[in-house]
From TrEMBL:
Its main location: membrane. Keywords: Glycosyltransferase, Membrane, Transferase, Transmembrane, Transmembrane helix. It is found in: Membrane. Belongs to the glycosyltransferase 2 family. Signal peptide: none annotated. It is an enzyme of class 2 (transferase). This is ceramide glucosyltransferase. It is a multi-pass membrane protein. It holds the Pfam family Glyco_transf_21. InterPro entries: Ceramide_glucosylTrfase, Nucleotide-diphossugar_trans. Pathway: Sphingolipid metabolism; Lipid metabolism; sphingolipid metabolism. It comes from Orchesella dallaii. It comes from the Eukaryota.
Amino acid sequence: MSSTFVCTIQGAAIFFLAFGIGMWVIHFMAFFWSKWKLHRKRSWPADIPLPGVSIIKPLVGEDPHLASNLETFFTLNYPKFEILFCVQDNNDPAINIVDKLMDKYPTVDARLFKGGEKVGINPKINNMQPAYISMKHELILISDSGIRMKEDTLLDMVCHMDDKTGLVHQMPFTCDRQGFPAILEKVYFGTSHARIYLAADLVGINCPTGMSALMRKKLLDEVGGIKAFGCFLAEDYFFAKSITDRGWKITISSQPAWQNSGYCDIQSFQSRISRWAKLRFAMVPPTILAEPFSECMVLGICVAFATRVLLRWDPIVVFLIHLLTWCIMDWFLLRSVQNGNIPFTKFEFVLAWLFREASAPFLFIHSLMFPNIHWRQGYYRLQWGGRVEEIAPKVKL
Ligand SMILES: CCCCCCCC/C=C\CCCCCCCC(=O)N[C@@H](CO)[C@H](O)/C=C/CCCCCCCCCCCCC
Ligand SMILES: O=c1ccn([C@@H]2O[C@H](COP(=O)(O)OP(=O)(O)O[C@H]3OC[C@@H](O)[C@H](O)[C@H]3O)[C@@H](O)[C@H]2O)c(=O)[nH]1
């Protein structure tokens, strides 16, 4: 064997081992941060009045949980807020649900905006724009249609908005629902996704998902309002980037986001995760290189190879120990994020976990091979950097 070849193999082994150690550090950082940050109540100074919040709810169509999810916004325990529902289609079935809720809670300040306004490509921004220009409070909460609130969720978010903070976001998680797809979603959002999300929050890396984001409106107004972000599909990432670029902090709140969509199936879960991956690849291209190695199975193979080359350890044994310890760490992280009873057995957890971990590399390859995006009614092509253009719905996605 030539010495160049030996050096290359040893270099690769050292790289994989270092990456493996890095990922184990991330496991511990995420677990520590989940214990430190999540499910810990904060209070608001008694001598300062709570700021008003305009809650914008962009809606497209209905699902079996929509009415009960939306109702949780009418029963929030918060002194000063308005709810601004937005639908882009004048015949959207969500209109009926919103009308009924507004009749049921006449004392809650709520309005419905129909038709949106075309200010860019991002359909969610277009949908929200009319509400944005008529909102009246200093804080804006953008909250996706599938989100459910507890009575104190809004207060919890506002309590994290200190003088230096410009954006408070909720870490995505899920409500307890029945069936394997629901278990899979909870396992994903409580393990793999939570790990990176918490570690990123701990070290201040911009990693927010826009399903529930509370912001200072003046910070959006300073750069031209939400319409300035209409050229991006991942408006959430660029809201946060714009805010941190100006020296403000972003943080997660103590309650995770309670996603509770009435439609829960494996295919829509995977296409959503794949859509997010395509957004990340376009916005932050180094993730294309880093993500596969941050996945349990791929990293396990790499670490088994590395320890074989460097330490002569049995690769099968190393791989199996890696898998087992990763799975156990994930179970503890999930329990910490859930902060209560896990609504399924350990056997169901292992099944969902294995399914998710084994399918992750294939989803990654699929997302790279088919980079165009189908989101609700629209089809889009992403450019490097994250700008987007609309395309005809003819390409395989
Ligand atoms: C030895 C160190 C290895 C570090 C490897 C890290 C590899 C990154 C792996 C996965 C990234 C997953 C990010 C999950 C959250 C993002 C969810 C998402 O895609 N949301 C989009 C849709 O709402 C949103 O538009 C995207 C926002 C963020 C994109 C930026 C991702 C950068 C992630 C880098 C995290 C590094 C954390 C390191 C912590 C020490
Ligand atoms: O055409 C659309 C699509 C979506 N939306 C709204 O946008 C919100 C998020 O939509 P989905 O639930 O389909 O999508 P996701 O949960 O994957 O969204 C996530 O990824 C993309 C980001 O831009 C979002 O901010 C983030 O929440 C919903 O409230 C939906 O009603 C629109 O208003 N119009």
